[in-house]
Fold this sequence. Notes:
single chain; 4 helices; elongated
Amino acid sequence: MFNDIGPLELVTLVVLAVLVFGPEKLPKMIQDVTRTIRKIRDFSESAKQDIRQELGPEFKDFEFEDLNPKTFIRKQLDNDELGLKEIRNGFDLKKEMAEVTDAVHSRESETSAGSSTGSGSGGGSVDMTKKPEKPQSDERPPFDADAT
């Protein structure tokens, strides 16, 4: 329940409790808190049992922790009825990315070689490394009054 509380934080809480409640009332307060926590746990367990009974016998082994998506996926991967381990082992992301990168680089080298040897008007390829040409004249683009 208190997995993320460190020793320094625990000592601080104890000192604060002694200062706030006093050494005389502190044991009674601890008993009251533990009794309340115990009642809440009992109430939650009885609610879980009631839900399991209402769901029927096919959900007898149902755990509410299974509703957590991470737990559900982990349980399904361990079950492996769908053959997901074979798919996961057969798929190498680094290899796939290397193939895609090689294909892109070979296509870039082909287009750059074709555009440098060709006349420049055929092929329909666009060289993305060139900067766009600016218009020769100092004319402004047409003004559209409806667009502004």
